[in-house]
Amino acid sequence: MSEGAGGSVAVAEARVLGDRTLTEMTQILLPGHTNALGDAFGGQIAAWVDICAAVAAQRFCRGPVVTASMDQLHFLRPVRRGMVVVLQARVNQAWRTSMEVGVRVDAEDPATGQRQHCCSAYLTFVKLDARGRPVQVPALDPGSAPLAVRRQREAELRRNSRLELRALLQAHQARIEAEAATESPG
Ligand SMILES: CC(C)(COP(=O)(O)OP(=O)(O)OC[C@H]1O[C@@H](n2cnc3c(N)ncnc32)[C@H](O)[C@@H]1OP(=O)(O)O)[C@@H](O)C(=O)NCCC(=O)NCCS
Q1: How many CB atoms lie within 10 A of CB 78?
Q2: pLDDT by residue (tens digit) across 1-47?
């Protein structure tokens, strides 16, 4: 059970269908969202990606979540001022306390309705309990669609490489701290 933002109590399910996490968010790229060239400021797109993904993660686990990581963000083409930015997020896979959310960003020309893929990202969210500690999430049911099953398998590969990188960085940090402690004892 978890307390929702509105004070209501949600009952966590043991298994949740990936399709139930589908989240779509629409924005218009306004002048305040652009860089000096008049195209989308990358940090703004990253913020929208994070929000859209967080909603999908909360729909999945029905509780508070934090972003543990965001994989590389490749901007495939610029988004021009006035374009409609359409973000679509869904949970691809879940483990013990974490879940991977995939987000696709398209830019829609308001005059023609034509959409172009601008970037994609994968984020890992962790569900927290009331004391801020990681807590168990439901299992993901991908359903029977081949694409959802493929997303689930690919999420496993990405998780392995993320955790490998995390372990390397932690070991590196521990070495630096040990060296610093040796250099300035006391
Ligand atoms: C994310 C966080 C909760 C992890 O806490 P922790 O003490 O390292 O806990 P654990 O080692 O048990 O990891 C919890 C889960 O996160 C996963 N995780 C942690 N770091 C990760 C990373 N860099 N990439 C992918 N997964 C990660 C672990 O694999 C584990 O998942 P699992 O239980 O499904 O196997 C903690 O590092 C944190 O609070 N970070 C700051 C989050 C934040 O402020 N985000 C930005 C604003 S929302």
Answers
A1: 15
A2: 333 455 555 666 799 999 999 999 999 999 999 999 999 999 999 99
- List the alpha helices (DSSP H) in the chain: 42-61, 146-183
- Which of 74, 67, 25, 30 shows the shortest CA–CA distance to 50? 67
> Given the DSSP bridges, would you call strands 84-94 and 23-28 parallel, antiparallel or unpaired?
antiparallel
- Atom 48, ligand 1: residue with shortest CA distance: 66
Per-domain residue ranges of the chain: 13-183
Taking CA atoms only, the protein residue closest to ligand 1 atom 37 is: 68
Backbone angles phi, psi at 98, to 5 degrees: -120, 160
Fold (CATH) for 13-183:
Thiol Ester Dehydrase; Chain A (3.10.129)
Contact 127, 137 (CB under 8 A): yes
Q: What are the pocket residues of ligand 1 if the criterion is a CB atom closer than 6 Å to any ligand atom? A: 66-69, 95-98, 124, 126, 134, 162-163, 166
Strands 23-28 and 65-70: unpaired
| pTM summary value | 0.91
